């Protein structure tokens, strides 16, 4: 499956947090749903969801720090990125929204729910977790990031990242072309929050909103048991939706399974 294109124009928005993000807004009726993408992905990964939901919901997608057109500045955490998505709600004049996040997008969406629970109507968490990377893989990620920064992405790095991030059923060539063209100096700031995040598993009980967890059965980046830990830890979580045969980007590669689950969850929410 090639990386799709969302038809709405990408609008550059300066947020109150001081960063600029590219945003699309379907301007539909119903609940506002803000989709936050994964590491080394962008807003286009949610094109199947925009197409499926835009008739009944106001669907917003955006490119996060260091993943869009804006020049990255300094270092930041997922708490800072959580503040970005809350600032995006301010820009849209939206008091409460459903936050839907894939992997990195889930990291920041859960933190937004902890920072401002009154702003988060519900969570949709896709191929994500509350924990951190395994200690044995951190040196590998750090070395890959440093090499990318110094020399650009090697073919081996692109091959490894594409397999880990996309999983079976996606067009790796299109993804590799996209990220090989990115400026090298984006690598370190983009990876910093991923490599330095803390474990928030012990805070899952503080998330009080309805939550849907979707996870690819063959996710090579985040084990399935990490998704079950979200379901077990969040009081109002629905039963885990496992996507058979899907890797880390289950919503992109298997929308025929992810979309009905998302639609049913959104339809079940109170007004």
Determine the N-to-C terminus distance: 35 Å
* Number of separate structural domains: 1
Helix percent reads 25-40%
Could you say what the CATH architecture is? 3-Layer(aba) Sandwich
Unreliable stretches: none
Number of helices: 10
Q: Could you give me the name of the CATH homologous superfamily? A: Alpha/Beta hydrolase fold, catalytic domain
**Which outline best applies?**
globular
- How many strands, what sense, and barrel or not for the largest sheet? 8 strands, mixed
The chain-level mean pLDDT equals 92
Name of the CATH class: Alpha Beta
Spell out the helices and strands N to C: EEEHEHEHEHHHHEHEHH
In angstroms, what is the radius of gyration? 17 Å
Could you characterize what this model shows?
- With 271 residues, the chain is an alpha/beta fold.
- It has one domain: Alpha/Beta hydrolase fold, catalytic domain (Rossmann fold).
- The chain has ten helices and eight strands.
- An eight-stranded mixed beta sheet has the order 1-2-4-3-5-6-7-8, with helices on both faces.
- The protein is globular and about 50 Å long.
- The N and C termini lie far apart (35 Å).
- The model has no long low-confidence stretch (mean pLDDT 92).
């Amino acid at each position: 499956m090639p990386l799709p294109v969302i038809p709405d124009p990408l609008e550059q928005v300066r947020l109150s947090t001081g960063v600029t993000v590219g945003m699309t807004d379907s301007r539909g009726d119903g609940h506002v749903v803000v989709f936050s993408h994964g590491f080394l992905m962008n807003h286009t990964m949610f094109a199947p969801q925009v197409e499926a939901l835009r008739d009944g919901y106001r669907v917003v997608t955006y490119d996060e720090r260091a993943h869009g057109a804006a020049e990255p500045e300094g270092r930041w955490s997922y708490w800072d990125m959580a503040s970005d998505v809350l600032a995006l709600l301010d820009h849209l004049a939206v008091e409460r929204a459903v936050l839907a996040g894939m992997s990195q997008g889930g990291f920041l969406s859960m933190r937004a729910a902890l920072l401002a629970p009154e702003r988060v109507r519900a969570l949709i968490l896709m191929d994500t977790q509350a924990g951190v990377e395994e200690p044995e893989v951190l040196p590998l990620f750090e070395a890959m990031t440093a090499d990318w920064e110094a020399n650009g992405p090697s073919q081996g790095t692109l091959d490894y990242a594409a397999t880990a991030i996309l999983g079976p059923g996606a067009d790796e060539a299109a993804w590799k072309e996209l990220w090989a063209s990115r400026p090298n100096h984006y690598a370190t700031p983009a990876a910093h929050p991923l490599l330095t995040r803390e474990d928030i598993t012990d805070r899952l009980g503080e998330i009080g909103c309805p939550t849907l967890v979707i996870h690819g059965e063959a996710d090579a980046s985040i084990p399935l048991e990490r998704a079950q830990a979200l379901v077990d830890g969040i009081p109002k979580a629905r039963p885990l939706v496992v996507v058979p045969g899907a890797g880390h980007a289950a919503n992109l590669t298997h929308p025929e399974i992810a979309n009905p689950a998302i639609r049913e969850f959104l339809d079940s929410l109170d007004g």
